[in-house]
Amino acid sequence: MGDLDLSGAFSGITTDALLEALFLIVLASIVIMLAQNLLPRVAHTLGGKPRLYLLASVPLLRLVVIVATIIFVVPVLVEPSFENMVAIFGALALALGFAFKDYANSLIAGIVTLYEMPYRPGDWIEVNGQYGEVKSIGTRSAEIVTPDDDVVIIPHSTLWTALIANGNDGTDNLMCVTEFHVEPHHEVSAVLSLLRDMAYTSPWVKTWQPVSVTVRNTPYGMQYKVKAYPLAPREQFRFITDLTARGTEALASEGVRMVSVPVAAV
Amino acid sequence: MAKVAEKQVVHPQLPGGLIPLEEWRLPETSVHRSVKDAIRNAWTQVTTGLSPDDEAFESLDDLPMLSRGQIERFAPDPDYGRIASLLLASVADSQGNNPVSFLVAPPFSGIRKALEVLADDDAAGVRNLIMPPENLLLSDSDASEWWDACDLSTPWVIPELASFWLRHRSGLALVRELLRRVAANEVGDGLIGCSSWCWQFWSYYLPDARFQPLTPAPMDSGKLGLWLGGLAAPASDSGVVARMADTGLWVLPSDPDALGEGNKTANFLRDLAALSRGIPGVALGIWQKALRARPEEEKLESKEQGERQSVRAHCWVAPLNKLSLPVVPSSSGRGLEFILHALLLHDGLGSDRLELVTGMKGHEVAPALNRLLRADLVEYHESDGVWRVTPLGYPAIRRQLQSDGFPVDAF
Fold first, then answer.
1. Which domains does chain A have, with CATH numbers?
2. Do B403 and A46 touch (CB under 8 A)?
3. What pTM, to 2 d.p., does this model score?
4. A:127-186 residues touching chain B, CB 8 A cutoff
5. Quick one: which of B355, B352, B349, B411 has its CA closest to B381?
6. A50 and B403: CB-CB below 8 Å?
């Protein structure tokens, strides 16, 4: 094995080679930018699974472009011999290790997310108390948009330590839970049946997914939970609103009164 | 059951007869056609809204379309009386232990009209027609009383079960009680027609209910050729002759034995069967729009009226890619889709009931209906005061609802 000479590895770089490499990098950046802007726009005109697949393809496409760019650019700048590669990547690793440890951590976690896929664009996730839809997965971080339209940046390195709850996990099935707290002293089976009918007749519900209603006693009354799936995950809040409105109306029509938790107990 | 199908395959009015629901298969088409349609549909979905004028039906060729009189001659509506008697015979052959038979079919299959004729037919006079009450929002006890008051001891028929319920928490009682009575064998000899969309909802709502419904066999290219040829048969002694306007290939008669030597058949019927999802009413709607006349034939039409054809009636057929079928307009909300889905679930609804089942307000429903009307996707039926989807719009509507995550039928 010869000497690992970093300056020797770059000694053959010419102006033409630099321009060619620059051109490839700019080209790759344009392709990535187009993919990140156009594909989500097209995806939003679609519904159901095609939308999810198209969104999920964006980070994968970016990875493919980055890898392809590296494969094309490196031979342009240096002779791809074993010694040169070891010298370049060794120096790179040293620099990253000292100067950009956290950044490199996120980069590596970002690559892990691409094949482990704990979340994808279009997924509804909760990380460290922040809940929202994954809008994009970048090289270092993921962006989620909360129901209140706040953009939250989550570094991929969070993946190593935080608990990540994924509501739909790459599918378009996301269960919603609507709660009703009512006074006791009523016919429980009738209310169970009433709430099930109420959920089945909501135009927002996926009827082929199970609709279930549970009940339990609490110190302040009976707690009913209606569990059902909306037509699309992004419609979960309108779905819960619809079920809450319909359920409240249905319970009132049957003379079942709602209860409130005393302020002191909250 | 296979014997039933074999016996009825000879009837052009009901080719293939009745089959069990689980045996129904979507007519196949070529890979080339499937890929082409998939790309076209994806493109339509992405570009919908960019050119709103293209939403309605449009003919993209220059040949004159058929006049009303010519359509009556070449592609008239089927004889529902004949279909009704064939349905009755087929049901009688396949009836098991349960005295009540369910006929489940996609919209525009003609089952509803046939069963209504069956009940109206004085000569047959064997079925008591059960019609829904004016108010469908009933409690369980009211629904039970209503069915008690109906005479279900003599043979009875319900042309469309979808008319007996509303997608509202108080609108389920009538059908729930009827299905309970059918399952408990508490009703007499009955025949229930049901839209496939309505059936799908109730299959999910009552997952343990199993009634072994029958359905008309899907119209594949062979059955479609037989059926379309049979429709025109009464107006023309020798049947109708139809050829492709662009290639001259033969469409009808579809039977190779009936064609002269060297005459090649087109793939039109195979593509039409796939496009219409094997549903006769949808296929007939597209067929009527695809038929073309030569200009001189149009002029001669008045002379021919009243005279019985002694020779084969001749017409031309525009290729399917020259027909721009209606598309579902783009919308930022779910309103249009809620309305279309509700119309399919209930086989037609009035505006007031649409508000009830969709949860939309009157000022939202009226503009949405108007937009769908302009796109040729719905039409108002004055006879019973309800809005229904159009046969030409049905393929696009089903595709759009499925793509947007709505529960769709199995057909």
1. 6-99 (no CATH), 105-171 (2.30.30.60), 176-265 (3.30.70.100)
2. yes
3. 0.81
4. 172
5. B349
6. yes
